């Protein structure tokens, strides 16, 4: 199954320690597209000439581009379609450059019965370097909320 094929989990299916990882190569077109969508045209992301003079020595991807990949995992794989994003904390640890392969992982850290809430630990790595970490809180449907639906649909 490819990453783009969704896997849905109901609250009852989740266990602490469940984990999903998404690998994404950062393309120049991703950075340009994210600038267009977000309106963030900071030259550190778009101008090699400008970025070469910064402490990074070259262009870097938007931090929220990297963070948006967490949303991809939450919305498509763990917990998957039907999950509602409630909150997210982010700590940016290192730059992400065009051409880097980002490994974004989410892991179920806590199940909260009241409101079918799930706390997930989130990390992004480039090779052995943690580039981003944080926590997400999502609300996940229960089977009783979606009669006739099957997990994995």
Automatic annotation (TrEMBL):
Protein name: (R)-specific enoyl-CoA hydratase
GO MF annotations in UniProt: (3R)-hydroxyacyl-[acyl-carrier-protein] dehydratase activity; 3-hydroxyacyl-CoA dehydratase activity; fatty acid synthase activity
EC number in record: 4.2.1.119
Keyword match Transcription: no
Annotated gene: phaJ
A Pfam match: MaoC_dehydratas
GO biological process, one term: fatty acid biosynthetic process
Keywords tagged on the record: Lyase
Gene Ontology cellular component terms for the protein in this record: fatty acid synthase complex
